[in-house]
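for the writeup, i need someone to sanity check this before i put it in the appendix. the sequnce is what the collaborator sent (i think, or maybe the updated version? ugh). structure was predicted straight from it, no edits. if anything looks off just tell me and ill rerun, i have time this weekend
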Amino acid sequence: ARRLLDIDAALARLAALQPRLVEVVNCRFFGGYTEEETAAILGVTDRTVRRDWEKARAWLADALDPA
């Protein structure tokens, strides 16, 4: 349960900085959408979704497990 709270808090911090990255996480991770489906939902290109997904995963990994 603690890990879920940490994830929720990290997503809230990320949303304050880059809200579209959180939208991509919501679609890809929680919604199970493909890159193409996520791009259509958000009105961006597949390439943008791919870049945002990579940035969001890296940011969250760092936020959840700082060195």
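Residues 46-64 form the longest helix (19 residues). The CA atoms of residues 12 and 22 lie 8 Å apart.
thx in advance!!
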